[in-house]
Design a protein that fits this description.
With 452 residues, the protein is of the alpha/beta class. It contains 16 helices and ten strands. The chain has a ten-stranded mixed sheet with strand order 5-4-1-2-3-8-7-6-9-10, with helices on both faces.
């Protein structure tokens, strides 16, 4: 069933958030969904407001809001939604020229069918306060923009960039959603750590984007689009050609389908090379010449940890990062507190947690407390352990190079010239995880992988 979504802009702006009030209306649904964007946070970094990138931020915010508001249970197959949305922008003709390509790109990202169209907005998204401010800010500076999620990969990405570019400045961009606890405070904690070593060489532009009201789907498939749009917002201000970096280990970016049921749209594609390539082409066509890239597309998480340019800083700070995809689902956790009395930051058995532990094991840093540690796993029953079951199934299957290549291509287009490199990446990930489970898994887990 197609869901038609129209967006209205209220006559008055939200002066406190310095934003135009945007509401999403769904055909046949009386309740509106109100977009929550805190533009004041953007303006704390720069009073200047970009042009095309402001349109892109509006587009991404509306897509993110619609993605959250429409539950998948209402779809015919209980998953794939058909969403038709008209978005208000300033440059209607420019974006209309890429509407079909953008719809396909976002459809690949979220696993849905999108029909995106545009109309001229009565107001731009960012609405600066009319009064003069008492504090004068310097213009935002930086040779690059780096997305800063609060996770281990983004922290390593920032540390590596600072070390490799010892005289240059970096703009870190963070996003958090008011419905999700953790990322905002994680980013601020890591900002404090970075200041101890790289003070004066970066700013953190941290922005809240989500829903002020309305229902919420919890898949967050479109979050990477929103995150990239925030990066592009500042990259346009910094200048043409300023790169936007998304530090993400290659196996998570590819999200290789560990079992057949995870192929296609059931597998997340937040930084998949096909999505990034398609998005870059769309941005180029509209005139946004700030390339988006993942510098770690061919690195495992363990290789990122091992090759981090500042091992001392990593050892001090890694415990402040969070990699868990299910930290809010604590009903099945075994450990609710660690020895110090602090609650674990991760469940321990989602794919990001499993890859994190395997990566840290390579450097002897797998010392954290998790909600469900693999050391205590006695069986693989229940939805909470589905990721670990899928991972063990993959390890036991022992796919050949040809089978890995087929799995990769079935999950999204890849450049054929690089396919062998991606196959080797998956094989190194497999070895990395297997080494860790053999060392740290419970007796039951070790018995499950004995023949691998």
């Amino acid at each position: 069933m197609r869901r038609d979504i129209t967006i209205t802009i209220a006559p008055e702006s939200d002066i406190r958030k310095e934003i135009a009030k945007l509401s999403l209306h769904f055909e046949g649904q009386p309740e509106e969904v109100v977009l929550d964007v805190n533009a004041t946070a953007l303006l704390k970094i720069s009073r200047t407001v970009p042009d095309l990138a402001q349109d892109f931020l509006c587009i991404a915010s509306c897509i993110y809001a619609a993605d959250k508001a429409v539950r998948r249970e209402g779809a015919d197959d209980k998953w794939t939604r058909h969403l038709a949305i008209e978005i208000p922008v300033e440059h209607v003709d420019t974006w209309a020229d890429v509407a079909d390509e953008l719809s396909d790109c976002i459809g690949f990202l979220t696993g849905d069918r999108w029909e995106i169209s545009f109309r001229h907005g009565e107001k731009r998204l960012v609405q600066k306060k009319p009064r003069r401010r008492s504090v004068r800010l310097k213009r935002a500076t930086g040779e690059a923009v780096c997305l800063f999620s609060g996770g281990l990969d983004s922290f390593i990405g920032a540390v590596d960039w600072f070390t490799d570019n010892p005289t240059e400045k970096l703009l870190l961009v963070g996003h958090y959603d008011g419905d999700v606890s953790g990322p905002g405070s994680d980013q601020r904690a890591l900002q404090t750590i970075c200041k101890q070593k790289f003070d004066g060489r970066f700013n953190l532009a941290q922005t809240r984007v989500g829903l002020s009201s309305g229902g919420a789907d919890t898949n967050f498939r479109s979050r990477s689009l929103l995150f990239v749009s925030l990066g592009c917002y500042f990259a346009e201000l910094l200048g043409k050609g300023t790169p936007v970096l998304i530090p993400e280990n290659g196996p998570i970016a590819l999200n290789f389908p560990l079992i057949p049921a995870r192929r296609g749209s059931c597998s997340t594609r937040t930084v998949h090379p096909h999505f990034i390539s398609g998005l870059n082409e769309i941005l180029r066509r509209v005139g946004m010449l700030n390339p988006v890239s993942n510098p770690y597309a061919l690195k495992t998480k363990g290789e990122m940890v091992e090759e981090c340019r500042d091992q001392a800083l990593l050892s001090r700070a890694f415990a402040l990062t969070r990699s868990c995809a299910k930290s809010s689902r604590r009903g099945h956790w075994i450990n609710m507190k660690g020895p110090s009395g602090k609650a674990p930051l991760g469940c321990g058995i989602c794919i990001p947690c499993l890859f994190r532990r395997a990566a840290l094991h390579k450097r002897g840093l797998d010392t954290e407390v998790y909600g469900i540690p693999v050391e205590l796993i006695a069986d693989l029953s229940g939805d909470a352990r589905a990721d670990l079951l899928a991972l063990i199934s993959f390890l036991r299957r022992g796919d050949s190079d040809r089978e890995i290549a087929a799995g990769l291509l079935g999950n999204g287009s890849l450049p054929l010239g690089s396919l062998s490199e991606y196959v080797e990446l998956v094989k190194r990930m497999r070895s990395e995880v297997l080494t860790w489970l053999r060392a740290s898994g419970s007796t039951y887990v070790k018995s499950e992988i004995r023949a691998c």
